[in-house]
Specification:
This is Glycoside hydrolase family 25 protein. InterPro entries: GH, Glyco_hydro_25, Glyco_hydro_fam25_subgr. This protein has 284 residues and is α/β, with parallel strands linked by helices. It contains seven helices and nine strands; from the N terminus they run αβαββαβαβαβαβββα. The termini are far apart.
């Protein structure tokens, strides 16, 4: 009987030890999960917050009124947006009333695509007193001359408009040297056509990886989100796209928000100048 009792005690003790080991293991797992979660959150909190905001914006799209407004970025006096058919019908009068002073409007993409709302946005921005510019979304595997030809046949830039823009950010291309040649061809032909130097648009990562040091003669419009200020030196860029999830009255849904580096007078000086009228020849 004593032997059975001792065996029972040993079995009970062994079971208790196993249970204690299991509890310690689970506590260790819980601590590791908590530490790992905190590490991931601290390291990627901006991206996580951004994902949550995007998810929320998608869920509430059907309930938006088109009157929502994101506060303007402090520290800058000149604010602007860029739009495409994605924004749908735009009430440009309301947009202008939210201190939006300039807008870049998508005109073309690749070698065949014309934005279906370009003409309406082009007229609407000018009528509302918003300085307007047009941009082409660059497809790096397509011929640069054909893309330039599509843009110049579509966009009637005139005195008072902002310079043309080439949006270069599509990550899938066959060869970086070919991409750069096509890009350079577009910039050269468009500058020749309009008589004004184009603006180059790209995001921070793409620019640093593929474009920095190759196109420094062109003004840079930099997209860089979730930072307090762009990581490129201030003398490297003229426009900063600081958000792609802002709200502006007159647009139902999110829109890209930008700031111009400098005063409103400097923005005015960037516009395409009026061409001097030819001096009439005297009658003989």
């Amino acid at each position: 009987m004593a032997t059975l009792t001792n065996r029972s005690r040993r079995a009970t003790a062994a079971a208790a030890a196993r249970a204690a080991n299991i509890r310690r293991t689970w506590r260790l797992v819980a601590v590791l999960l908590l530490v790992g979660t905190l590490f991931v959150y601290v390291r990627y909190r901006r991206q996580l917050h951004r994902y949550v905001r995007h998810t929320y914006a998608t869920l509430i799209t059907g309930h938006l009124t088109g009157l929502e407004a994101t506060p303007l970025l402090a520290g800058y006096s000149v604010h602007g947006i860029d739009v495409s058919s994605y924004q749908g019908r735009i009430n440009w009068k309301l947009v202008a009333g939210h201190q939006v002073q300039f807008a870049f409007i998508k005109a073309t993409e690749g070698v065949t695509l014309r934005d279906p709302r370009f003409r309406a946005n082009w007229r609407g921005a000018r009528k509302a007193g918003v300085y307007r510019g047009a941009y082409h979304f660059f497809q790096p595997n397509y011929d640069g001359a054909a893309q330039a030809n599509l843009f110049t046949r579509t966009v009637p830039l005139q005195a008072g408009d902002l310079p043309p823009v080439l949006d270069v950010e599509a990550p899938n291309f066959h060869d970086v040297a070919t991409m750069r040649r096509n890009l350079a061809t577009w910039m050269r032909l468009v500058e020749r056509h309009y008589g004004v130097r184009p603006i180059l648009y790209s995001n921070y990562g793409f620019y640093r990886r593929y474009l920095a040091g190759h196109f420094d003669e062109y003004p840079l419009w930099l997209a860089h989100y979730e930072v307090d200020t762009p990581r490129l030196p201030a003398d490297k860029w003229i426009i900063w796209q600081h958000s792609d999830e802002s709200y502006v009255p007159g647009i139902r849904g999110t829109v890209d928000f930008n700031v111009f580096q400098g005063s409103f007078e400097r923005l005015r000086s960037l516009r395409i100048p009026a061409r001097p009228r030819p001096t009439p020849k005297p009658n003989r």
